[in-house]
Design a protein that fits this description.
The protein has about 290 residues and is α/β, with parallel strands linked by helices. Helices cover about 35% and strands about 25% of the residues. It is built from 7 helices and 12 strands. The strands form 3 sheets. A 5-stranded mixed β-sheet has the order 4-1-5-10-11, sandwiched between helices. It has a 5-stranded mixed β-sheet with strand order 3-2-8-9-12. Strands 6-7 form a two-stranded antiparallel ribbon.
């Protein structure tokens, strides 16, 4: 009986000890600090996209002749027409048609020859409107002074360009020797009859130089071609007074349209125009 009691006491002691240890573990667990939650990973900074650079527009080249002071302002009004003309012995043999030749660049050529003759002076091309030019070229009575028209046209075109001088180059005419017919500007003419005729290519221009302050006419002259013996003109061998070139009879075009597309006519007219201006301009621009 006592033995059983001793066993029970020992068992009870173990149970109590186990419970006591269990309580100690639970208390220790309660006092342990709760681990802090892991901090969230820092957000990646937003990457700013660089704006796509727009391609820069190509800079427009500045014409050196249109910057700075202007010593010579050039106004080319040579026109853009090429004439195809027949001059017969009798009036019924005469005929004329014309065609536009914008692609020949005659006004551009005029400006380049003025620059070449200017001897280093600043040259500026002066713009004008077609309407203003047309108004200047309107027909007037025989008592009207054309020089006054051109002077007023130059004044209006000059505007605020303030050039020391202004050079105007325009087409002009020439009367045929021994006839009442004339040729004008740029073109080709057949002179004579079907049995015997001569063909000439020509480029006739006139030069005027004006004072840039008063707009008074300083100098004027026809652009001259190669010197020819006086006897040649007296005999009518070359009836044109001005830059011209005789061509073969078969060179005369069937129509004005054919003439405009003929590179030989284009190159021939440009050569005549350039050489005549090169002969005449240097003296006028001194």
């Amino acid at each position: 009986m006592r033995r059983d009691t001793a066993i029970d006491r020992d068992l009870m002691t173990r149970v109590v000890l186990a419970c006591f240890l269990s309580l100690l573990v639970t208390a220790a667990s309660a006092q342990a600090p709760t681990p802090a939650p892991a901090a969230p990973a820092p957000a990646k900074a937003a990457v700013k996209k660089k704006p796509v650079a727009k391609p820069k527009a190509a800079a427009t080249p500045i014409d050196p002749g249109n910057a700075g002071p202007c010593q010579i302002g050039v106004i080319p009004i040579t026109g853009n027409e090429f004439g195809v003309q027949r001059v017969g012995v009798m009036v019924f043999g005469n005929g004329y048609t014309s065609v536009s030749v914008d692609s020949w660049g005659l006004d551009d050529l005029v400006v380049s020859r003025v620059r070449a003759a200017a001897g280093g002076k600043s040259v500026r091309r002066i713009a004008y409107t077609k309407e203003d030019l047309a108004r200047t070229q309107e027909s007037h009575s025989i008592f009207h002074n054309r020089d006054t028209d051109v002077k007023e046209f130059v004044q209006r075109s000059a505007g605020n360009s303030d050039c020391e001088r202004y050079v105007v180059i325009h087409k002009t005419g020439s009367q045929f020797s021994n006839t009442n017919q004339s040729v004008n500007g740029f073109g080709i003419v057949r002179y004579g009859t079907d049995l015997y005729n001569r063909v000439f290519l020509f480029a006739l221009t006139f030069i005027r130089v004006y004072d840039g302050q008063t707009f008074e006419l300083v100098k004027s002259a026809r652009a001259v071609g190669e010197d020819q013996p006086v006897i040649t003109r007296l005999l009518g061998s070359n009836p044109i007074r001005g830059p011209d070139r005789q061509l073969d009879e078969g060179a005369f075009p069937a129509s004005a349209t054919d003439a405009a597309s003929n590179p030989a006519f284009r190159d021939g007219v440009r050569a005549l125009l350039a050489s005549s201006l090169d002969r005449t301009l240097p003296e006028m621009l001194r």
